[in-house]
Amino acid sequence: MQKTRELGSSILASSLRGWRGSSASRSVQLPHQLLELYDREGCAHCRFAREALTELNLDARIIPVPLGGTRFRQELMQLSGSDQVPFLVDPNTGEKLAGSDAIVDYLFRHYGHREPPVSLQPTRRHLIASKLATVVRGSRGLEARPSKPVARDMTLYSFESSPYSRLVRERLCELEIPYRLVNIGKQQRADIGPANFRLHLGKYKPLPNTKRASFMEQHGNVQVPYLVDPNTGVDLFESQDILQYLSRHYGC
Ligand SMILES: N[C@@H](CCC(=O)N[C@@H](CS)C(=O)NCC(=O)O)C(=O)O
């Protein structure tokens, strides 16, 4: 019952944002060095930055700064002079940007070579929808929970609107666990639907030379969330298994 409620409210959160952060550009040109995003999963403003990352098919190191969290707050204060999120660092260009407006604009102009679409800009209407998405999730992914520090970053395969992946991103944020976010949004019609019930007839084939294609080659299917923890050598599919694993190993 609880699981159904969690998934239902995560689907509602994605619906409130019109499923932005589902599709990904076909470009495979990833920047040399990983972008770094100081982020709070439940923050309405941060959502716009993560939607832009998915839609531009960009990966990032996510550095969680939940309310009441202490692990990365000082580092953020030193970098930006404030503890406000989202804050983006692009080591490829030396850019440091605060606020979703500036971040979305920069990502689209620099990496997408175009203006950001209105649908991804934090206008008043979109901000209200994003805040409602936070409310329907019962403010999950906002506040820190007691946790053990993690020596090496994990990797999470995800895309912003994925209702199952959101549950995992919320927990990673609450536990202040930094991770490499690998976005594998939908790049063609055949990608649409859950992994075991695609809205596509015939054998599923991701577009060649994409992150999806590499994932398929490695795992025989494409499904998110998928978590890799180099600290323990564990890698996991299934959101519920990942949530249990994170709480058992890193919760206090
Ligand atoms: N039972 C799985 C379901 C995961 C799932 O269906 N994920 C969707 C995205 S929300 C997916 O991987 N779809 C296939 C795709 O994106 O290609 C879980 O709880 O993690």
Assembly state (oligomeric)? single chain
Question: Considering DSSP H and I runs of 4 or more, what fraction of the residues is helical?
Answer: 25-40%
The helix/strand series, from N terminus to C terminus, equals HEHEHEEHHEHEHEEH
The share of residues in extended strands comes to 5-15%
What's the overall average pLDDT, rounded?
95
Assigned CATH architecture: 3-Layer(aba) Sandwich
Distance between the first and last residues' Cα: 25 Å
**Which homologous superfamily in CATH is the superfamily?**
Glutaredoxin
Q: What summary fits the major beta sheet?
A: 8 strands, mixed
Helix/strand class: alpha+beta
> What count of structural domains?
1
Rounded to the nearest angstrom, the radius of gyration is 17 Å
How many helical elements?
Answer: 8
Give your account of this protein's structure.
It is a single chain. It is built from eight helices and eight strands; from the N terminus they run αβαβαββααβαβαββα. It is an alpha+beta fold. It has one domain (2-250): 3-Layer(aba) Sandwich (Glutaredoxin), CATH 3.40.30. Strands 4-3-1-2-6-5-7-8 form an eight-stranded mixed beta sheet, sandwiched between helices. The two termini are 25 Å apart. Glutathione (GSH) binds next to helix 6 and helix 8.
